[in-house]
What does this fold into?
Amino acid sequence: MTAFDDLENAINEEEKTPTSDSSSESGDSSESQTSSESQTSEEPKDPRKTPAFKFSPDLRRSIYAREESWQEFEDACDLEVTRELRDAGVRNHESREVHDAMVRLAAKNPEEMAQLILGARGIDEEQ
It folds into this structure.
């Protein structure tokens, strides 16, 4: 898994999706209603086979980390997270799902984040 898996997958999905021209965009509302009805009548997707959320280039953010921190993160993802997901029957997780979980985990643990930042600076809070 690389940091660009999601981008590559999204590009491949866009290439497969037919583009609509302006004449089809101005089609009548019954056509769009039929289209949305067919989407809602479909069976629910298996959460073990579909990502938690769709790719959106608008949601991309840069994350800067030291090489050793990033390597430790990738090792944990490759060795532990992937194993846990496979044990649960998920074999096709996306990088964006891992990154989203990383950010949500950090948001739930702000005190630990602050301690890690202080430790990286060599600041001992006890002093």
Confidence is low (pLDDT under 50) at residues 17-40. Helices lie at 5-16, 22-25, 29-41, 67-87, 95-108, 110-121.
